[in-house]
Amino acid sequence: MCDEKRVRELLDEIRAEFPGFRLLPKQSSRLQRLIGGALGILTLGGQRAYLDHYVTTIGRTIYVNRGWEARSPGDRYLTLCHERVHLRQFRRYGWLPMALGYLLLPLPMGLAYVRARLEWEAYAEGLRAARALYGDSYVRDSDERARVVAQFTGPAYGWMWPFRRCVERWYDDVLG
Asked: Quick one: which of 82, 104, 153, 158 is 20 to 30 A from 147 by CA?
């Protein structure tokens, strides 16, 4: 199980690893509100939950969704494990290459291979953390698998990798 103490400890680890780290509410960021509106338009309404359900990392800042504190400690912990991978990616690749690759390469939607690769790395960490926290049955649950696969193949990330079988193979490979 996961409690508030474990979430605080993870946040302390992140702060130690990333000087200048910030955890900010999305709704207080003009940029995040603009991104949310743009995604709603670009995905023809398929991504309307950006501000309310998704957490986003840019540079050393994690922008949390509306209702972040109401999420369970376990959910916040797993999300922070995922987002820490993105913090490391920004450090490894640099802000501009990361942003350009994530948003544009090779295409902004449909075949966003760089975005898919970056998200595969982060989702894999989230799956490993979920297995450690909740057990193997949680990550092997067909609903959880379908939820993660839909993130890659649906409008949430702009149909970043619409090849369902490929994503399902990746998911199964992560679990071993």
From this structure: 104
